[in-house]
What does this fold into?
Amino acid sequence: MDKKTSYGLPVVQLLNSLHIEKNVSRLIAVIRHSSRHYSETPSAEPFMGLTEEGKISAYRWGKLLPAKMRISFFSSFIGRCIETAYLVDKGYITAGGTTFHNIIETSLSPYYVRDAGRFLETCTDLDDFFTSWFAGKIPPEIIDHPRDVAKQMAMFCMERLAPGATGQSDMDICVTHDWNLFAAKEYLLGMNHEIHDTVDYLDGVILFAKNGKCYITSPGNDPRELVVPG
It folds into this structure.
């Protein structure tokens, strides 16, 4: 199996494993959107949708989710994330699952970019914007610190994992961006972004409730109790 056809496979395999694990009462998958188009114009970045390959991958991924679940969907407000959520939803319905329509969620979005114009200028001027961002060298008037991005995601997920918080839903699928996931992996899982420097399409983290506690994990990593960053 080549990389293109295996996008998201480790995450969905881990989801299926946790689904049948004793005392796991609730699951959330936070994944990056599927394969996307790119533009040489930075200002066009928010409008780049999924490639045809990306659409097929998202649909196929949905068909692999644990059977007979009732799944809620949340996504960033950016179109490629909405597209991904929609196609995963349709894949799961085709496989016989039950779904609830996608809801836009701020903590999954690039809300942390506070000044788009200065942000684009800073990205152009700095040799390594990402390293500077994690080092706290970018003013908060331009972009929030990645620790705060992880904090907002953790708070949202903890609310969704709380007993009785989700109504009829058994699982949440949340579609976000690689930057959000780099922040979550670093500050919630202890995965340094310089070592773990790739977030593939449909890759992500899984959060779950077990024996009254909340945990976060990802393929190849042991679960860690979910703690909201200070």
Remarks:
- The mean pLDDT is 93.
- The chain is about 40% helix and 20% strand.
- The chain has one domain: 3-225.
